[in-house]
């Protein structure tokens, strides 16, 4: 059976340990971690190391680490030392987490399509450096489809390393890719390393529980069944449930009871997928 994984940042505003242990108690097997900026500073190594250590202490598996500071990713496509320094920073994170036993990393290719520099050699060289680092540390890097189909496919097309593959994000495809671009699983699904499953209505990246939005899950799951087996990872963070009449019920981020309701619904959907995909 595939593992059930959820983002450690699923919307419950409690301390890290309470959040992830509740997710486990409600039926998820493991979590994935992402780091936040600290005000204007980049996230620190210590933030993620602490998260990894706390998960170990509480016997909660980590499916992957989401590389941090997504707003800085456009630097990777720019000429100059700032891009090199940011690339070094990401390699440092990978090295540090690899030493702590993490095997899989997820990265975006840029931040906001309209702000991204055009596809170019600077970007390719830096992603090649990330790929080489992953080979060296014997870990894998999954390129997540984010906003720009052109950048996402350029990297996947041009970096053939077996340590580099695809992280398929269902919600991003639904919102950011146009109809001609919804073929990333056809093109790169044989290199699938992770999924981010969440739903929306094709307009905003809402990160709802799957089956609440307008993604055709039956088609998507049938496709996933034909691809390399990966954990069923929910990247949900919108603390909302919908009743039978499709009316939203916004939950209280501070309430443990509401967190339980939210996780209960998410686990029931994840378990149906697990059954279908076994
Ligand atoms: Zn994602």
How is the secondary structure organized here?
Elements lengths: L3 E4 L8 H10 L4 E5 L10 H13 L3 E6 L14 H19 L4 E4 L13 H17 L2 E5 L4 H10 L5 E6 H7 L7 H5 L3 E5 L20 H9 L6 E3 L5 E3 L5 E3 L5 H21 L2
Parallel strand pairs: 1-2, 1-8, 2-3, 3-4, 4-5, 5-6, 6-7
Antiparallel strand pairs: 9-10
Helix pairs in contact: 2-3, 3-4
In total, the number of domains comes to: 1
Radius of gyration: 18 Å
For the record, what CATH class applies?
Answer: Alpha Beta
Q: Give the terminus-to-terminus CA distance.
A: 6 Å
Task: Count every helix, treating DSSP H or I runs of 4 or more residues as helices.
Answer: 9
The biggest beta sheet reads:
8 strands, parallel
- As a percent range, the share of helical residues equals 25-40%
Number of strands: 10
Q: Approximately how much beta-strand content do the residues carry?
A: 15-25%
Strand arrangement within the widest β-sheet reads 7-6-5-4-3-2-1-8
């Amino acid at each position: 059976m595939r593992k059930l994984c959820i983002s450690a940042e699923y919307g419950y505003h409690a301390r890290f340990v309470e959040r992830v242990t509740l997710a486990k108690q409600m039926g998820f097997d493991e979590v994935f971690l992402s780091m936040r900026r600290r005000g204007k500073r980049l996230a620190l190594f210590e933030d993620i190391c602490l998260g990894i250590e706390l998960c170990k202490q509480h016997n909660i598996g980590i499916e992957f680490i989401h590389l941090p500071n997504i707003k800085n990713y456009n630097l990777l496509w720019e000429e100059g030392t700032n891009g090199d320094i940011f690339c070094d920073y990401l390699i440092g994170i990978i090295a540090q987490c690899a030493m702590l036993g993490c095997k899989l990393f997820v990265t975006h290719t840029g931040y906001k399509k309209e702000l991204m520099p055009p596809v170019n050699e600077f970007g390719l060289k830096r992603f090649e450096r990330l790929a080489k680092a992953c080979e060296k540390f014997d870990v894998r890097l999954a390129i997540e489809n984010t906003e720009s189909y052109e950048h996402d496919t350029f990297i996947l097309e041009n970096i053939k390393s077996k340590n580099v593959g695809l992280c398929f994000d269902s919600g991003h495809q639904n919102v950011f890719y146009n109809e001609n671009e919804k073929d990333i699983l056809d093109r790169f699904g044989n290199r699938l390393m992770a999924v981010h499953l969440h739903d929306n209505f094709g307009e905003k990246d809402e990160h709802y529980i799957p089956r609440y939005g307008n993604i055709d899950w039956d088609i998507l799951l049938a496709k996933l069944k034909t691809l390399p087996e990966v954990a069923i990872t929910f990247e949900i963070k919108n603390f909302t449930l919908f009743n039978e009449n499709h009316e939203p019920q916004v939950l209280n981020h501070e309430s443990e009871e509401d967190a339980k309701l939210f996780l209960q619904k998410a686990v029931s959907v994840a378990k149906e997928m697990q059954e279908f995909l076994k």
